[in-house]
Amino acid sequence: MRQELNTLGFSFSKTREFATCDPLYTKWEQEFIIKMFEQKLLYRESTTVNWCQECHTVLANEQVEEGCCWRCSNEVQLKEMPGYYLDIIKYADELLVDLEQLEDKWPSQVLTMQKNWIGKSQGLEFEFELTQESKDKLGGNFDKYTVFTTRPDTIYGVTYSALAPEHPITKYLLKHELLDTQTIERIVDISNMTEVERAKEGKEGYDLGIEVIHPLTGENIPVWTANFVLASYGGGAVMSVPAHDVRDFEFATQYNLPIKQVISGGELPYTDEGLLENSDIFTNEKNTQVKASIIELFEEKKLGRGTTNFKLRNWGVSRQRYWGAPIPFVHCKSCGLVAEKIENLPIALPENVEITGEGNPLENHPTWKNCSCPECGADAIRETDTLDTFVQSSWYQLRYATNPKKWNEEGINKEEANYWLGVDQYIGGIEHAILHLLYARFFTKVLRDLGYCDIDEPFERLLTQGMVLKDGAKMSKSKGNTVDPDKLIAQYGADTARLFVLFAAPPQKELEWNDSAVEGAFRFLKKLYDRKDKVSHRTLPSIDQNSLDGKAKEARVKVYDALKKSTDVYTKTFAFNTLIAACMEALNALDKQDDKAVWSEGLYIILHLLEPIAPHLATELSQELFDRTNLQEIITVKEEVFVQDSITLIVTINGKKRTQIEVLPTASKEEILLMAKDVGAKWLEGMSIIKEIVVPNKLVNLVVKPSA
RNA sequence: GCGGAUGUGGUGAAAUUGGUAUACACGCCAGACUUAGGAUCUGGUGCUUUACGGCGUGGAGGUUCGAGUCCUCUCAUCCGCACCA
Questions:
Q1: Per-chain mean pLDDT for chain A
Q2: Per CA to C1' distance, which residue is closest to B21?
Q3: CA of A483 to C1' of B13 (A)
């Protein structure tokens, strides 16, 4: 890999190179984790997690794609187990708001994906009080439960409430067998399904035989459990308004539950705006306008409160595998969960380990997990979970900005990090839109708050390069459809390979690999090299524009067109394909003339422009021809090159191109029109002109209609 | 279902942001030089028509002197989210 990058001529600061699995890197990562634990940003909890049987590990929500593992595509299962979580929800608002700073600097698609993933919604949170009878049934263990809604305006239309199968009340009913056996079995089955599986099954639910009291009307409302109520969101319980919610409507229809319309409008379920009805004092008001008043009413009566909820889940960072930094905690019989002492870091992975593919290698290691408690010194057990490797990639840019001489003493040098970062231009695949790019944003903000740097956003500008496809599929080793760049380089050289790839398409676009055009790229470079004999000046020559013939002038225009274009391409658009095309045009135009100074100037500039694209050829020729070893100088665009002796104007009639005229740059509008009518006489016969338009330097348009 | 993106020659793609549509390159055709060419060079190459011309940026409308570009509707493909109450 390193060899390949070198051959292709990529530049890295070799002194700053490091591996994220190096214990010296691990050490600081573990320190951050301990600091986060101290700030209560990291916690350990036992919940239902995504488990990949193939990888033998837990996965974060972001790492599950359509119910499958992002690495191996194996179907993810649910499992109840303890794990460590980073409180990313605490930063949800900032992560959302700061997306605005990235507008126009990041692709809008990525911004949208992050926004949707964070999924902020505002609404009302309130408690449903259980009826006395229901409280008794639940053995006095529950008085009420909380629900969340974004539609407080439909509160008078509630006809039932639904709990997730995992809701504590549902669980209680199951445990104490307060439902009939068949129902219990079915609910347990549902509990074992993933969200994706539940969605596929269609709606299913059961009457739990308990009731709650409507907080405003005092009516009794039946409580059901339903497979579409998510345990992980909004407390795992909802109020149901079948008249104005598609899901509730479907469910209510299926189980013959009552439906009460409270917004006037069309066919049910009606989810658009309208006037309220059957809504007590709010009747006849616009539904969009009463949301706030209803929340206020709940707050006044101390029944509930306005709240914000996020779809984003906290980041589960526990992994049960060998690679990744060990989570630096110790389980002590008397002290409980204890963070390792900073001076004992790093807690390195053992090297004599057996990777069997079965179970956690650290767990299975005979001695590694035995340690003493950092608090009391008693025998204790080391945590065997390791950190998600996305933690490693969340701060490597901060490490890279830190002077290697300081790597032993500090993880991140604040001054240097502040100086170098955020990254001016970051390049990566769209597949990390809500993985690495979200985690790194979060981690950067946490490290900022822990005092390690003053950076708000890790990556200032982002380019998501398109995937390279082969036979319509993403190129990958596992699919065996990769193209070996070595072969291409061996045959044509690294510069041709680079030029070819950049010329094929703009980098944002995905590219179907087809190497038939390699020849073209090679031909261009060869031609460029062949023309070195044309150079007669050792420096950028000064040229008297007036002494040149037309072809030479045209060549200069093309050369300076390319130079002009390069600024935009290298700083904004990254449309290297158009810059390469401009260089090709310039070379073609140079070939049509024979002024030595123009040739020298042209090649000087073309080599300068191609340096980042074909560095080997460009630097070698620049050195040989012009004694230039550093191609970073700024060449100014000579505007006089673009001043033309005459201007070509297109003559259009009724918007259709008919002919063209040559005029002096000083020609007046009247002169131009006169000339246009003269050359266009053929098309004007029997016509009367009703409008004349002259666009300077561009065209003339004559609007005509048949004479009466 | 919701959200986003993209549709231009045989192919990869350009178009100064409302002003000559198809630059540049691949491919193809013809020619030149060659013992030879998978090397190099020259010319041609959107469709249609004998020609003048007509048509042409997924499709249908609209705005405008003028639309690949702006607006409305529509079709197709791709991507993301997917019961988030």
A1: 90
A2: A657
A3: 22
Provide, in whole angstroms, the distance separating residue A565's CA from nucleotide B66's C1': 27
CA closest to C1' of B4 belongs to A109
Residue A408 inside a domain? The answer is yes
Number of domains making up chain A: 5
Whole-angstrom distance, CA of residue A449 vs CA of residue A680: 72
Domain boundary among A391, A408, A426: A391
Kindly state whether residue A58 falls inside one of the protein's structural domains: yes
Give me the CA A518–C1' B35 separation in Å, rounded: 29
CATH number of the domain to which A546 belongs: 1.10.730.10
Residue A687 CA to nucleotide B47 C1', Å?
Answer: 30
Would you call A283 helix, strand, or coil by DSSP? coil
Residues A125 and A108 in one domain: no
Same domain, A532 and A670: no
**Which single residue has its CA nearest the C1' atom of nucleotide B5?**
A109
DSSP state of A179: S
Say how far A213 CA is from B52 C1', in Å.
Answer: 87
Q: Which nucleotides of B are covered by protein (CB under 7 A)?
A: 3-5, 11-15, 19-21, 23-27, 39-42, 54, 65-67, 79-85
Q: Judge if A329 and A299 occupy the same domain.
A: no
Distance between the alpha carbon (CA) of A689 and the C1' atom of B52, Å: 23
Q: H-type helices in A273-336, by residue range?
A: 287-300
Bond from prior residue into A242 cis (ω within 30 degrees of 0): no
Q: Does residue A97 sit in the same domain as residue A173? A: no
Report the alpha-carbon angle A443-A445-A448, nearest 5. 110
pLDDT(A471) > 70: no
Longest dimension (CA), chain A: 110
**Is the same domain home to A252 and A329?**
no
pLDDT per residue over A74-122, tens digit each?
Answer: 888 888 889 999 999 999 999 999 998 898 889 888 998 899 999 999 9
Beta bridge partners of A78: A50
Asked if the model's pLDDT at residue A669 lies above 90, the reply is no
Nucleotide whose C1' lies closest to the alpha carbon of residue A228: B83
Q: Answer with the one of A418, A447, A465 that is the final residue of a domain.
A: A465
Residues A542 and A629 in one domain: yes
One domain for residues A443 and A418: yes
Alpha carbon distance A490, A475 (integer Å): 21
Q: Which domain holds residue A654?
A: 647-706
State the CATH number of the domain containing residue A138: 3.90.740.10
In a domain, A356, yes or no: no
Residues A445 and A337 in one domain: no
Domain-embedded: residue A186:
yes
Q: Which residues contact A314 (CB under 8 A, 6 or more apart)?
A: A85, A86, A87, A88, A89
Integer distance in angstroms from CA A44 to C1' B62? 61
pTM for the model stands at 0.90
Taking the CA atoms of chain A, what radius of gyration do you get in angstroms? 35
**Closest nucleotide C1' to the C-alpha of A312:** B84
CA of A569 to C1' of B68 (A): 22
> Which nt is closest to the CA of A311, judged by C1'?
B84
Amino acid at A315: W
pLDDT tens for A314-336 read: 999 999 988 899 999 999 999 99
| Nucleotide with C1' nearest the A121 CA | B84
